[in-house]
Amino acid sequence: MVGDTKLHTRTRLTVEDILDLLKLVTTTYRGVIYQQMFGAAMGSPVSPLLANLFMEWLEKQAIATAPVECKPKFWKRYVDDVLELIKKGQVGNLTDHINTIDPTGNIKFTYEEEDKQIPFLDTVLVHCPTGRWVSETSGI
Questions:
Q1: How far apart are CA 106 and CA 29, in angstroms?
Q2: What Rg do the C-alpha atoms of the chain give, in angstroms?
Q3: How many helices (H) and strands (E) does the chain have?
Q4: Which of 81, 95, 79 is nearest to 125 (CA)?
């Protein structure tokens, strides 16, 4: 990972200071300090940011190291929902590969295969006979 070489131009805090502050805000809830055993504390305002940063790191690693036969042609993620386009019959192989990236082994991806349509967020994507995709609001 490449460090931020311009951090000193934006703040007088050191990387160590920022990590100490991050530790404090991820272990404090309603004024009580807890010992966080793993991950970020539920309810902490910084938890969604940390989760998104981790997911961004994980997906970059997974896509960059994916075997050629299951490398996604298209990848879109929102929070923990991913829509991907890969070669037919390779979704299981890609999922197995992605599940090897998390060094803690605590994050496990699952998948749904397209059967002429697939849900993504609050939309159902429909695969038309022409090969095009159209979206329908799912009403969720």
A1: 23
A2: 19
A3: 4, 7
A4: 81
> Do 68 and 82 contact (CB within 8 A), yes or no?
no
Token digits for 85? 């386009």
Strand partners for 136: 124
Tokens 């090897």 belong to residue? 100
- What is the spatial distance between Cα 2 and Cα 6, in angstroms, rounded to a whole number? 12
Residue with tokens 């009580």: 32
Q: Tokens at residue 15, please? A: 């990387």
Q: How do strand 28-29 and strand 123-127 relate by DSSP bridges?
A: unpaired
Q: Are 53 and 40 in contact (CB under 8 A)?
A: no
Q: Facing residues of 33 across strands?
A: 28
Q: Which of 92, 99, 90 is nearest to 61 (CA)?
A: 99
Q: What share of the chain is helix, strand, coil (3-state, %, to 5)?
A: 35, 20, 45
- pLDDT averages per 10-residue partition of the chain, 140 residues: 76 88 74 72 78 89 94 89 89 93 87 86 86 71
Backbone angles phi, psi at 77, to 5 degrees: -130, 140
- The pLDDT score that the predictor gives to residue 1 is 44
